[in-house]
Structures are given as C-alpha cells and as structure tokens.
Amino acid sequence: MSETADTxxxxxxxxxxxxxxxxxxxxxxxxxxxxxxxxVGQGGCDVSAQVDRLQQMVDSANWILSDxxxxxxxxxxxxxxxxxxxxxxxxxxxxxxxxGLDICSEFDADLPSAWVDxxxxxxxxxxxxxxxxxxxxxxxxxxxxxxxxAHSLLIEFRATTPGVVAExxxxxxxxxxxxxxxxxxxxxxxxxSAEIDGHGWLCLRLELPVVAPA
Length: 214
Description:
There is one protein chain. The chain is of the alpha+beta class. About 45% of the residues lie in helices and about 20% in strands. The protein contains six helices and seven strands. It has helices spanning about 10-40, 45-70, 85-90, 95-100, 120-135, 180-185, and strands at about 80, 100-105, 115, 140-150, 150-160, 190-195, 200-210. The longest helix has about 30 residues, at about 10-40. The protein is globular.
C-alpha cells in the first residue's frame, strides 16, 4: 500500500479521516441550503442567522481540508519571529473556532518571540480548540497559560475531558487533531505532549523555540 510523503500513515487512513471529518459540516451545509430555499420562498425573516451558520460550516470545512494538508506535510515550515500573544488572541476571537468554549487565558507580560511558522501555529491553535470543543465537559471551560521556560515558550491548555484516554490522543486514526498538532510542533523544532491527572484534568503542553537574544 502506498503511503503519504514523509510519514508512515497510509493514504487509505487519510482518506477515511477526511471523509469522516467532512461528513458533519457537509450535512449541515445541505440542511441549511434546504432551509434557506424554503425560508426565502416563504418570505421568512430568519435568513441572517442561517447565513451566519452557513459561513461557520464553510469555515469548518475549509479548516478540515487544511488539517489534512498539514497531516500530509504538504506545507513546509517557514519559521519567522512571531508574537504568540497576538496570534493566540486573534485565533481565540474567531467565533467558529472558540464557539461553546469558556476560554480563560493568562500570558506572562514578557513573553519572548516564538520562532515558528505563523500559519502552522494558527492551525495548531485552531486544532486544539476543535479537539477541546468535542472533549470538554458541559461547562466548556479551558485554561490557557503561556510563559518562558528554558530557552523555549511553554503553552499549556487545561480542561476536564471525561472519557478521553491519554494513550489514544496522538493516534492518527482517532477522531481528533492532536496527531497533527504534534507533527506541526516537531516540524517547527518544538514539542507537543499531553497527560491526564488523577482528577480528570487534561493538560496539553506545547513547547516552541524562541528567537535567540541579539
């Protein structure tokens, strides 16, 4: 069986992953289009809300395709100096990415600039949010912190995730994006790990290289 470039993940698994992930947004797009057809024909007034939902589904579908591209490592890393706080706050403000999550962020004031591909970082952050949306408890609370640590930038995501099994978090065959997150981190010279404590809290740790002082 042929395999994707620079990975041991079979093409068949990638296709199954893509098909599974796209099923929900494409089904939603179909139902919204049908609703809009009926509503416009009857002079309904709820079109705006449905168009907003339609845009969210389009964004979600585009993101899934982007995730598969990263999974296949089609996009090489081009690291630059990045202000992590600005990028993170920009991503968190995207309604489709953070919808349903109560995000509490605490970033040190003197964070060093990360040395990372900015688009890779944005995709990684969106991937974490997508994973947590599916996994957190009903409150949807996640705590995010960022600080400088031993020549790197350390970012932690903490949330209660009932039913999540640590051993399967980075399996490319599971319905999550953490496998892609780890690959992005490593491709940019960093690390991405996870652990679950005895109280059911999941901690995702992202370590990124920083710009060396002049």
